[in-house]
Write a structure and sequence with these properties.
Length: 116
């Protein structure tokens, strides 16, 4: 059984910090690229950040670059999204995503609400 599970969402004030975690288990332990997406109410899901297996390459969405950081700990099968100074428009459900072969894997999502 393969799954991704996100943790760490909640209510945060704009300008504070929040760290999300995504734990991989089953057949998708330590996959290659892992990504964070988010979906605001009434909007399409959008990509936020991605990181390769050994952490040597990471990409961040322009709108959050300089405030959000993606990292991973392969010993814990976990990828993180450090959110510094989030903005109210960053409110939404944050999802973890990876691929293994031809299969896509999504977590169940964790709600992040940024208050102004």
């Amino acid at each position: 059984h393969a799954q991704l599970a996100e943790f760490g969402g909640g209510l945060v004030q704009a300008g504070e910090s929040l760290r999300l975690s995504c734990v991989a288990s089953g057949r998708i332990v330590n996959p290659d690229w892992m990504h964070w997406y988010r979906q605001a109410p009434g909007k399409q899901r959008e990509w936020v950040a991605g990181i390769n297996r050994d952490g040597s390459d990471a990409n961040i969405f322009d709108n959050v670059r300089g405030r959000f950081t993606i990292s991973r700990d392969n010993a814990k099968n976990t990828v993180y999204l450090q959110m510094n100074s989030p903005k109210p428009e960053g409110t939404g459900v944050y999802y973890c995503f990876t691929k293994r072969g031809v299969f896509d894997y999504w977590g169940q999502g964790t709600q992040v609400t940024v208050s102004s």
